[in-house]
Amino acid sequence: SSEIANIAQRYITRDKVVAMVGDPCTGLTKVAADIAQKNQVVIFSAGATGAEVVEIGDFVFRNTMLDTVAVPVVVDWMMNEKQWNKFAVITSLNNGYSTALTPIFEQEIEAQGGTIVLQESINDKETDFSAQITKLKGVDADVLVFTGYYTEAALIMKEAQKQGLDIPMVGGDGLYGQDLLKLGGDAVEEKVFLYCGFSADQPSEQTAKFVEKYRELYNEEPDMFSAQYYDAVMILAYAMEQANSSDPKVFKDEIAKLKDYPGVSGNTTIRENREPIKSPVYVVTAKDGVFPSLVTKIPVNID
Q1: Residue 263 falls inside a structural domain
Q2: Quick one: what percent of the chain has pLDDT higher than 90?
Q3: What is the widest separation between alpha-carbon atoms in the chain?
Q4: What own/partner pairs with CB < 8 Å and gap ≥ 24 does 77-84 have?
Q5: By the 8 A CB rule, do 163 and 196 touch?
Q6: CA-CA distance, 291 to 293, in Å (whole number)?
Q7: Which regions in the chain score pLDDT beneath 70?
Q8: Are 116 and 54 contained in the same domain?
Q9: Are residues 141 and 250 in the same domain?
Q10: What per-residue confidence (pLDDT) applies to 24?
Q11: Residue range 32-73, pLDDT digits in tens
């Protein structure tokens, strides 16, 4: 974090930037946001989903798919589309993302009338999940909600497969990564579902153009972060244009007023608390050796 502090400071004092597009990690974003706020420079995170980011101050924004926006929509999808009503929940205790996401899922499951039949925990970097899967086999769960990262998700699903347990897993964008498929193979294909803020499948005209250009430039598929970073830069440019000014003290107000901005990762509205609400929520899985593969996109009620 001292490295990110130095980089942020250097951008501001040496390069005289008026805006920074922030790190995908919440912890590091907060470090840079503190510095940006003190210097009255806009910081826009295209990845941080954790709590207490925009609260740092009125120069701090993000355009990520927030867990508090996505989880209600995804729980509704699980219960009404998939008819999964009995939930097992596994949390990674040494992972701040996971410990923050678990209560959001648990509250929403209870609010929508679901039942939590098992609460288990692991730690990141562990590799033996046989005890947790044995416990999971002893309860009648329809689905496993895992709030950690893709590495452990893949290993948990491989252990379930090894023990002959056939259960789907649902999680947040912490499960988003090619390694989910590389590590998990057929144990995760069409078994692990996660929500995120972007999919290149079934694109709008604008998204299709972005995907095509991205492939031309980098010879690979754009991921969620590529799309959100692109949108962040375009939103900053749009705000400066609307304000007719590149002074952060002036154009930050235009970001704060953003409503239904049509980006390549979906539409973004900035609410009064400077938090984004995005639509749609994308649910993706790994399928036929490809990740991510779109399962569904669910519109979010912006009002």
Answers
A1: yes
A2: 93
A3: 63
A4: 77/283, 77/296, 77/298, 78/114, 78/143, 78/170, 79/112, 79/113, 79/114, 81/296, 82/142, 82/143, 82/168, 83/142, 84/142, 84/143, 84/168
A5: no
A6: 5
A7: 303
A8: no
A9: no
A10: 83
A11: 999 999 999 999 999 888 888 999 999 999 999 999 999 999
Tokens 């193979």 found at: 185
Tell me what pLDDT residue 182 has.
Answer: 97
Q: What is the three-state SS of 227-276?
A: HHHHHHHHHHHHHHHHHCCCCHHHHHHHHHCCCCEEECCEEEEECCCCCE
pLDDT at 163: 98
Q: Which two tokens stand for residue 213?
A: 């250009």
For 21, the 3-state DSSP assignment is strand
Alpha helices in the chain, H assignment, sequence order? 2-13, 26-38, 67-76, 96-111, 130-137, 150-162, 178-184, 205-218, 224-243, 248-256
Q: Average per-residue pLDDT in the chain? A: 96
Q: Is 3 helix (H, G, I), strand (E, B) or coil?
A: helix
My answer on whether 99 and 27 are in the same domain is no
CA distance 189 to 158: 11
CB atoms within 10 A of CB 262: 12
Query: Domain range for residue 135?
Result: 67-196
How many domains are contained in the chain?
2
Single-letter residue type at 148: G
- Distance CA(5)–CA(29), nearest Å, equals 10
CA–CA separation, 23 vs 103, rounded Å?
A: 24
Q: What confidence score (pLDDT) does residue 217 get?
A: 98
